[in-house]
UniProtKB/TrEMBL annotation:
Its EC number is 4.1.1.23. Substrate binds at residues 12, 34, 119, 194-195. It catalyses: orotidine 5'-phosphate + H(+) = UMP + CO2. The keyword Lyase applies. This is Orotidine 5'-phosphate decarboxylase. It comes from Methanobrevibacter millerae. GO terms for cellular component: cytosol. InterPro entries: Aldolase_TIM, OMPdecase, OMPdecase_AS, OMPdeCOase_dom, RibuloseP-bd_barrel.
Amino acid sequence: MNIKNNLILALDVGSESEAIDICEKVKESIDTIKIGYPLALAEGLEIIKKLKDKFGFKVICDFKVADIDATNEKICEETFKAGADAIICHGFVGPDSVQACLDVANKYEKELFLLTEMSHPGAKKFLQPAADEIAKMGIKMGITNYVAPATRLDRLQDIRNIVGEDAYIISPGVGKQGGDGKKTLEISNAIIVGRSIYEAENPKEACENLLK
Ligand code: O7E
């Protein structure tokens, strides 16, 4: 995925009007947004096409898909039918569940991101011990896009070492969660930033500062 300024906006706001307001303010710096449950549950999947049509953005749907294969297939179908350019799935559910997501992404000629280790402190308890194996599974399955944390650069580097330089890694955790954008981008291909932009008094300036 080609992402302008290697910066993805996590648009975790609660309404279409807030989403449009933020997008208007940052549209010069950003061409890719991540929509997750907060906005999708508030406004429905139609919000994907609305924002794509209005701003020409690419939309990554962060539904952290984590069910059995048959249900994952249905979730991905609905998401790509609604216009998503990519979807994020969890890896801990295992290869059959992830394969179901990959098959639907391939059918729509869209992209799948595999979530390895999460960025929050709690991820150390269950997910971190499994994350390397999740990344290895992804490589075995031919997955080229990954999510790995900006909050633990040593772990981000470990995951980079497993998936290789050709893989595309996006990293959440910059700003409010304590991660450093510049250092993260020495390992990752793009950063995902939410609150530091949409909660800022001046989101446009917040974006520009991040890009500096
Ligand atoms: O901390 P913020 O406000 O900059 O937002 C970070 C966003 O990334 C937010 O949408 C959160 O749900 C998401 N995220 C993490 O913070 N940590 C993770 O490990 C994974 C994600 C995520 O986006 O998952 C799929 C990429």
